[in-house]
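So, who can interpret the following?
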Amino acid sequence: MPDFRYAQGRIPETVAFISEEIREFDADYAEKTWKDYRDDRKLQKLMDRTVENVLTALVEVCGTILSQEGTAVESYAEALSRSGKLFGFTEEEQQRLEKLAIQRNRLAHRYLDFRWQAVSLFSRERPLVRRLLADLLSREEKRKDLFPPSGPRS
């Protein structure tokens, strides 16, 4: 039976996607105010969708990492907080990651009263997300050295 590795190659690809979405957010939306957001429906949709894309992909990549580690989780929030724990984030940082998963749900399910709150929390937490992405990529580089494409070393 061939060796199966969950989502082989997906982690660097997903991290690159997230990084590009964050760069877009930085360039186009980071300086927008509540008034800008409130007064422009097109801007709302673009900002909401960008943040939702980032957070959904982040949950996916964190879930993949935890699956590779043999760790099961019950929720998106747990996937993010456990990933933070895996990389040595403080408990407070893990809780902040959990809150990002909640914001993802607010955007995905279109909770109208909370969309700006979700976008602005993400905006404040970008450095934390970037740090998690860097740790994810570093882990993947180490795994690549341990398990080259031909399979585990004997």
Remarks:
- The chain has six helices and no strands.
